[in-house]
Amino acid sequence: MKDADRDDDLVSRTRRRFLGQGAALVGGALAGGAAAGTARAERTAPVPNAPPNVPEWMKAPGADVGSELYGTPSRFEKEVVRNLARNLKQYTSASSRAPLQEFDGIITPNGLFYERHHGGIPDIDPAQHRLMVHGLVEIPLLLTMNDIRRFPSESHIYFIECSGNPGFEAMNGRTASDLVGLVSCAEWTGVRLKTVLEEAGLKPDARWVVAEGADAAALTRSIPIEKCLDDALLVYSQNGERLRPQQGYPLRIVLPGFEGNMNVKWLRRLNVTAEPAYSREETSKYTDSMPDGTARQFTFYMEAKSIITRPSGTHRIEKGFNEISGLAWSGHGRITQVEVSVDDGRTWQAAQLQEPVLTRALTRFRFPWTWDGRPTVILSRATDETGYLQPSLAELTAVRGMKSFYHNNAIIPWRITASGEVTNGFVKA
Amino acid sequence: MKDADRDDDLVSRTRRRFLGQGAALVGGALAGGAAAGTARAERTAPVPNAPPNVPEWMKAPGADVGSELYGTPSRFEKEVVRNLARNLKQYTSASSRAPLQEFDGIITPNGLFYERHHGGIPDIDPAQHRLMVHGLVEIPLLLTMNDIRRFPSESHIYFIECSGNPGFEAMNGRTASDLVGLVSCAEWTGVRLKTVLEEAGLKPDARWVVAEGADAAALTRSIPIEKCLDDALLVYSQNGERLRPQQGYPLRIVLPGFEGNMNVKWLRRLNVTAEPAYSREETSKYTDSMPDGTARQFTFYMEAKSIITRPSGTHRIEKGFNEISGLAWSGHGRITQVEVSVDDGRTWQAAQLQEPVLTRALTRFRFPWTWDGRPTVILSRATDETGYLQPSLAELTAVRGMKSFYHNNAIIPWRITASGEVTNGFVKA
To answer: CA-CA distance, B110 to A72, in Å (whole number)?
Structure first.
């Protein structure tokens, strides 16, 4: 029996359900394997059931334990970094995006969490940092980080998302990160804001809390008292360790489901007031210009959204089985359903949601798909526990117009070409 | 009114529930605040309700967005690293421990996940890496990493724990990390091992799967087929990003609840067999010598365990409110209860468990405690969903003897001295 025949025979006997003919499925093929060459070479080697060749990295001891006391990714993953536009006039007030198309699961590793700063990243000594709580309170507080850590703590997995995700230009992006990389998700630990406000004692006319960051922009946002007394957290830890400087070290607010810029980083001041501050970031920015010339202001909640991250722009797929996987989230609570269309929106089918599905956290969805090799467009749309369904771009712009693009949660299309290339479906082919 | 009187007056009016007299509670105290000196200095400054002084880091723009495309911790956290013994003869086969006393929540950041290697850390090129599946299968497979990523995926948060956590010497450790730092928890993404075995097709007499790592030790462990067909995962991602080299890049097994060394890293081979391999790591190591001279072998599951991480050894507490917080876990499923004793085990009270409580994941517990300033010993004990209660050291050694100390899950005592110092309660004061 010739090698080629033998190969075909072996392939026909397999129960292959997920790997196609082209994959490195091998019976009598392993001696030349591991470190060697192509799948074809592997499939014609003669010794069945022998182990693959011993690769170089087994022939001598590897790096010592503790050679990195704080670990870093493999050198083969050095391209997996935050996505930073290379053509900005300045980077003090700018953003870098999380590489969503590289992610698995729902946790964003701290090193890849998206950034958005308005005055650069301050280098804060936590021993010198103070949080002041003042205004309409019975007794003002000036708290050290040690004081803040003495309060009862909580941990929750929540997403944070920039309200401009995606803005106009980003709609032309190539990758999932280009489009909606201004969202990330982590386990946050801190103190309920309510606990600290109760320690200070709210006066009867307390209606807003004006939060100020200790960055050069002194970023300032007004938070309604109802949110402050609900699930708002003063956070000092992210995914188990202290906040990173980019995410507000040593202290930030997390307002589950509220637009990113309200989750004030490097938090130094909470001024309890009767009226909002009408700060720069709630007047000249972060308001939505409507078709009639008015502005939507204080648009706190991020609405339900989803994106297929795999396959997504710049990926290439093969005929046969392809798992479609992506992320869904809503500022209003839990995701209850994600539907996927593999025929440009003509029909929709329910995707599987990975448990645990948590309120105001990213939710991973998956959908098994066998691609027949014909060009198509794939889409996802999320529904949250309020019954709200993620709209199409046409539905969204019919209501909002095109004057501004905060809170853009339109369905995102990915085009699949006959060769399996995946491109942004918003951009004309 | 003198400043001191004024201060006392303000303090008496507050609703302080969590912060003691010594904390930086301030009414007319804020102008000299933030970057200034001691709590006392702050409390005597004269201007009420003014913001704290503007710190240096607000006076000029901070670091640019994207100055770290892969983020790292603040320079003020450089002591928070893996805990490595400094007196070993060699570090090729050794361990470093997670700094549990620094952690919040349940997720271990990838940079601080504990390490245990038997032949150093290999530097594997994922494009060259292969997984061979052979032995008692219908058709052997030789899979590339791309092949493995084409199978349907799942994500789960699981702990992994070394079976020697703590061993004899570690029982004398100073910190929570010294004692049981060989445990960590992450969100893992990969393929069910069952899916890959079904792709190959198991022969009727398949009873074990012998897994081999691509490290210089070729670490080899035999896994019962029942576990392989249950929740065993072939994992390529940890907390959203690719595995780190220390955790098995590019591919490892995760066997939820099974002792750490069976979760074979750098996985290159799965040999399906009728009998276990009786490899070095399941004969000369990772067996428990019993009092009668026999050895317990194939002790897969890690039993229920807990530890108070805050306050814990080397911490110092103050009189008044102190939150007791710690971690509990069980290889047999969910933690159903954690009890805390603040009187050296005479009485026990239920701690709060942070939701979500997940099977075979770390569970964060918290217990509010007001310390009266008297010396005492604080303890925690976990119960899992099988009804199993974590034993005392005396109960454990009565059954197991003292010949070996794998699977030591004894209750861990922390002594509190009159000055508030916290020390290891196993060590005589």
So the answer is: 8
